[in-house]
Design brief:
Blueprint lengths: L1 E4 L4 E5 L17 E5 L7 H14 L6 H11 L4
Parallel strand pairs: 2-3
Antiparallel strand pairs: 1-2
């Protein structure tokens, strides 16, 4: 699975998701792609990934957008 934030040119690519489609963008070299595994999205590693994702998105980790993103990913939305 790849989650895209096209307005920020940021993507979160979960590389070992069995239903994954590869990261694709017309101008891929201009994108920041954070590649993670499913196990990275659990426990203590998740907080580090979310901190990095917030940095790439340009939001504070305690921002409402960051909290919404955290909730979306924790529920396993696709």
């Amino acid at each position: 699975m790849v989650l895209y934030w096209p307005d920020r040119k940021v993507a979160l690519d979960i590389v070992d998701d069995p239903q994954r489609r590869p990261f694709e963008a017309e101008d891929a070299e201009d994108w920041n792609v954070l590649r993670v595994t499913v196990s990275d999205l659990h426990r203590e590693r998740f907080a580090r990934i979310m901190h990095r994702l917030c940095f790439l998105l340009g939001v504070a980790p305690n921002d409402a957008a960051a909290v919404a993103t955290f909730g979306l990913l924790r529920r396993g939305a696709r």
